[in-house]
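Hey all, sorry for the wall of text incoming. These are the two entities for the joint prediction.
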Amino acid sequence: MILILAIGIGVGCVYALVAVGYSLIYRTTGVVNFTQGSYVMLGGFSTYWFFAHARWPYPVAILGGVLVATGAGVSLWTLVVLPLWRRRSPPFIVLLATIVVGAILGNVALLVLGTTPRTLPPWIPGFGLQIGASRVDGQYVLVLAATLGLLALFGVTLRASTLGRAMRACAASRETSALLGVSPERMGAIALTATAAVGGLGGAMITPAQFTSPDAGLAYGVYGFVAAVLGGFGSLPGALAGGLLLGLIQALVGRYVSTNFETVIVFGILLVLLTVRPQGIVGADWEEQ
Amino acid sequence: MESGTAGAGDLRVTGLTKRFGGVVAAAEVSLAVSPAGVHGLIGPNGAGKSTILGLISGFLRPDAGRIEFAGRDLARLPPSAIARLGVARTFQQAAPLAGMTTLENVMVGMHARYRHGVLSVLGRLPGLRREEHEVRRAARAALADFGLAAEAEADAADLTFGKLRFLEVARAVAMRPRILLLDEPAAGLNRVETERLSGLVRRLRTDGVGVLLVDHDVSFVFSLCDQVTVMNYGRVIASGPPAEIYRDPAVREAYLGPREPGAEPAR
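and here's what came out:
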């Protein structure tokens, strides 16, 4: 039971990081970016490639993995989203473009490393947590700690820095922000860079505890999106709550019912929640409105 | 078209034309705003005043003409870049950043003066804290100037109409603009608030800011301006010092109101 909960929390943390990515970019730019999950896959997969194929030292491989994910985020913004945005393309075109890019990234990963799910050694060898009779993989503890740390960092930055204020200003009104000298394009670029890096780190962190395969990008993308919606699309605590809830439900259903029913049950719960509480679990957002 | 040498800090609009479908909202409009000067832009509803402000601040793209400031053609720049160059504007419909406090609204406007990229955020955390403190203090001072000190921590969207208008102006002034475009700042304000606004505009002029003032309140505009441009149906019909404009028969007929009924100009 403890082990199941640890898996749920660990995976849920990654969903939460992806969810924060969705909401930060959506609030800042109005774009729903469906490649958010691909950064997790890219982070995990490129770390694996750098470590197992290029034989880089593990910490350098992790850094490389995060940089690949970040680079993918920056390229998506400059090469795909920004040109469409400037042409005032309808939101569904932008959404479609990000889905297509996500599919391409997944296929590239497939071509480079094949379908085999990959894993990595733990970040701190031998680190584990004894809870009762069970010994929890220390990697899950790291993932939880890093997620809480990153969310706190996002929270402080948004609330009490020039950059954070500028982002919240864009979320409130991109037109007024531009009038005040804040470039929504630049804020979008920063939001995408930051969330791609965080997604990549999430992938590098979770891969030692879970397997990562080329189609993981789609799974993290969908579940992270669900977590963002559950959390109210904009609130940091909401994203965490949504991610953890989703991770735990998935782990429990997978263990006690059947992995075949995971998707059905998770999406069933989503449908019920959307009907009962369309504003999400928390519902407030990072502007404390 | 005007000739002569432009002052270094002038905002110079030349031959500005903007069409919306078949409607010509602005036709070859030329005007100049100088530092430490107040330029009035008046005209009946639909004369094209707001179009001119939209073109200068970059929200609209002209079909023809140039908007020169600080050696740049503003017609080619996005709104945020124009704001950072020192051309600020306010809206007739105050546009507060909802969900942010009054103080934060002003602080966002100071972004242009305190710019930080991601790397500098990571690299200089201690310096940032000091700067955050400094911005906060300067923003509080700006609010106090406009009688908004008590509302500093309130959500900007909850301010009363008059206070919201002052926030709009305070936010623009806190950006330390060199040119300030005011879109009907006195509309809906009571006498006391209008007096206060006049005092603030005069002080901006003393501080060397060039002001382009668009308003319906003719006595308000004439009491403040050194130069007035009158528009009607997208065209400039007169420009000059207020006393001259006041006597201009074309202006009287088009804008100050024809005496006899039925004397409205035909389209």
